[in-house]
Amino acid sequence: MQVSFKSTYQIPLSGPKLSKGKAKQLIGWVVPRYENVLITNNYVKLSIAEESDNAFEQKLRQIGFKVYQKFFEHDIPKNEIEKYIAKVFREGKPYKQFGKQPKARR
Fold first, then answer.
1. Looking at 13-17, 26-30, 64-68, 91-95, which range is the least confident one?
2. Considering the domain boundaries, does residue 78 fall inside one?
């Protein structure tokens, strides 16, 4: 079955007011629920169906994750998420920053 993913998220696992416990809670919540999840040392990166966006973002805030980025590309496979996010930043493509101001583009 081909699943069409609509939004890609990058959520930092460290930062102000984020404990290792919160990071483990986030990982324990997303891994069993979402198919395209990539966990690196500093981030959880995943693609989810668009109709899940509001509930996902609400749960993030509930757990205590207020700073994250949302990208708008379609059908990003798990093994391509990191390349895609790097390309967005490198090429200055639009994305939505939650919780703090995005870094100025040079």
1. 13-17
2. yes
pTM score, whole prediction: 0.80
Number of domains in the chain: 1
Find the domain containing 76 and state its range: 7-98
Q: What angle do CA 43, 87, 26 make, to 5 degrees?
A: 15
- Strands of the chain, DSSP E: 7-12, 36-39, 43-48, 68-71, 96-98
User: Is residue 1 a part of any domain in this protein?
Assistant: no
Residue 2 lies in a domain: no
Q: How many CB atoms are located within 10 Å of the residue 50 CB?
A: 12
